[in-house]
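Read as amino acids, tokens; as here:

___
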Amino acid sequence: MTSDSSVGRANETARNLALVNYGLLFAAIFFAGVPALIAVIIAYAQRDECDPKLRSHHDFQIRIFWVAFALTLAAGICFLAALVSGVAELFQYTQANGWDTLGEIRIDLSQLTIDGAIVGLVVASLVLTFLCAVWLIAAPAFGFIRLASERGIGHHGQP
């Protein structure tokens, strides 16, 4: 009888840990992704030691992390490219006006134009960041609701 209660307690602990992981994934929006890193480490560590239904949740948590990571990486690359292009444009403009000394620098940006590619990269970065935020709100909420109602993710979701 003690083994049945210890197995039940272990299953409940694993389920609670998966629920906490969904909370960590949601909190990643507010803490620069650090909680998501903790959640994915826990999910990778726990997924081989649980039943198939709970394993589907750990797999889903890992998928949430990697999709958010890819979206964040793409947004960062777009923003960095826009920043580098903008600085290059500004540098070319300063060279054209012949700034020779640092003692007296006057900046007149009235003749400077922003390239459409730079605007496009900034917009792409903002859109990707928005998509990542929506993903980190919706996906953990979906998983949390499925786990709270004792259903799995995907083909493990059938009762």
Summary: The first helix runs from residue 2 to 27. The radius of gyration is 24 Å. The chain has a mean pLDDT of 85. The CA atoms of residues 80 and 121 lie 9 Å apart.
